[in-house]
Amino acid sequence: MIPQSFIHDLLSRVDIVDAIDRHVPLKKAGANFVACCPFHSEKTPSFTVSQSKQFYHCFGCGAHGNAISFLIEYSGLSFIEAVQDLAAYAGMQLPEQQSSNISHHSASDDSQQDFASDYDHNNAEISLQDLLNALQIATRYYREQLKASEKAIAYLKKRGLSGKTAARFAIGYAPADWQNLEAVFSDYNSDKTRKLLTQAGLVITSGETKQYDRFRDRIMFPILNQKGQIIGFGGRVLAKEEPKYLNSPETILFEKGRELYNLFSARRAIREANCVIVVEGYMDVIALSQHGIDHAVAALGTATTSFHIQKLLRQTDNIIFCFDGDKAGRKAAWRALENSLALLSDGKYLSFLFLPEGADPDSYINQFGKESFEQQLKQTLPLSEFLFKELCSEVNLQTSEGRAKLISDAKPLLQQVTAPALSLILIRRLAELSEIDQGELDELLQIKRSSKIRTTENKPAKQIISPLRWLILMLLLNPDCIEKLDKSWLAEWNENTEEAVALKALVDFLDQHLHLTKDKSAHSLMPFLQNSPHKTLLESIKSDALKWDDGFDLEAEFLGALKILQQAYRKKRVAELKNKSMTMSMLTDAEKLEFQQLIKQQS
């Protein structure tokens, strides 16, 4: 874990305007900066960034956060990757004990973190930057070799690739000899370089001294991570040999199940199209791009994993899986479906496109062109239809046994779906197909569903209409205001509205983290509330501050709201005491004294 104190210092040092402007050009608009929102399509800018308060908010889609959350949502980085990226930009070094235990991928699973820890302990003399540099050197070498290889150039031309496209994707060629990289690593056979190239996945070692290049006589496709760094290669043979494609091995930099080919370069196109096309191979991506379809990515010789889908859903709400129409293609599509179910939410749309048997995106677009391929994209099969189409193909719905098997096969799949509306729709469809009452089907499926369906859509900020909302906002922007808050009446305040509960939770949090109330960098409070059940409400309330100018008197507004609430509390307490008894005889001595004091304060 990265210490909260480091995150706090990082956000205090970084200017959110500069951090966002690196990716999305901002324009000054009054006290704030604006742009067309990078998270949804719009023509009129509603994405607002406050330099004084150090957060952004979109009044169109509700996107909200700080510099770290922007990198997570915009670049698809994990939390740790976003912190690392922002720290590097700010010239800050992660705490040594932390950076030594965080892998380049920042995987959430313990095994990956252990792997990273073991790597750094055992290979302290070789840094991650050393590995990245080695891969960069190899890329330049392979690109130069492509220019000198007639047969490699002829192969790419035969596949329909232009020189411009090959250069854009940094495609290269690894010659057929066994130790080609010796040309660019002068100490190729030294112990240190041997370790470096082995750990980078560029050479294979045998025994204590023998080594040879992993990639030989292959077209080379550099694989980039989400920072645009080269982390591995895919190599394609020119002749009919096996394996047809050879990827870099698993390394500290490269994990096939977490990376997607072309995602770094395709991010802007994905957002503009509000869609991503997932294909099976490098050449599919490149051929589509050459024909003007730039929002395509590919898995790296593995099935589409849940990590892939998570990354893509951070970029867009619409994923199209485009696979071959043969048995292998449908199997790959089914695996993608299985890995998607638990990640679906209402408003996300996953669909499948199966090209004619024998065709892939590369061959299809080269033969029929962009317009024909785009027509195919309009005929995709929604996930729900593909799900039941495949399940029904395995059973005979004309028999009771077949319908029973359909329910049995569907049960473990539907139990993974947590999207409320989609879950209900899928169950209704299953009820129709199995010819069974939906209530009885619910009992058979044993799907736990929230009794109250929560809406997940972000709503535009509302005007502040209650003093409770004012108090929350003031505490978010200026935590030391808590010293002016009389907590005794707040503890007795038994109102159960969402705002009242959130205010009490915020006060409890600040009581437990008193150091935050002394810090004038109030804009950094929200990162500490990311796991709060009231996070959405707090972000909505905080966004109202974007409508103020910098001369807004926070303290006066806080005291005004506090006065209104105290008056409301006194009035409510007087009513309670009056209702307790029509005479003073039923009140305790303490209550009688309290009642008299309250009446005096009201007069």
Automatic annotation (TrEMBL):
Top-rank EC class of the record's enzyme: transferase
Signal peptide: none
PROSITE patterns: TOPRIM
Alphabetic keyword roster: DNA replication, DNA-binding, DNA-directed RNA polymerase, Magnesium, Metal-binding, Nucleotidyltransferase, Primosome, Transcription, Transferase, Zinc, Zinc-finger
Cofactor list: Zn(2+)
Catalytic activity as recorded in UniProt: ssDNA + n NTP = ssDNA/pppN(pN)n-1 hybrid + (n-1) diphosphate
Gene Ontology cellular-component annotations: cytoplasm; DNA-directed RNA polymerase complex; primosome complex
CHC2-type zinc finger span: 37-61
InterPro entries assigned to the protein according to its UniProt record, in alphabetical order: DNA_helicase_N/primase_C, DNA_primase_core_N_sf, DNA_primase_DnaB-bd, DNA_primase_DnaG, DNA_primase_DnaG_DnaB-bd_dom, DNA_primase_Znf_CHC2, DnaG_bac, DNAG_N
GO molecular function: DNA binding; DNA-directed RNA polymerase activity; zinc ion binding
UniProt KW Transferase keyword: yes
Source organism, top-level taxon: Bacteria
Biological process per Gene Ontology, one example term: DNA replication, synthesis of primer
Self-association state and partner proteins as the record states: Monomer. Interacts with DnaB.
Listed name of the protein: DNA primase
Species of origin: Nitrosomonas oligotropha
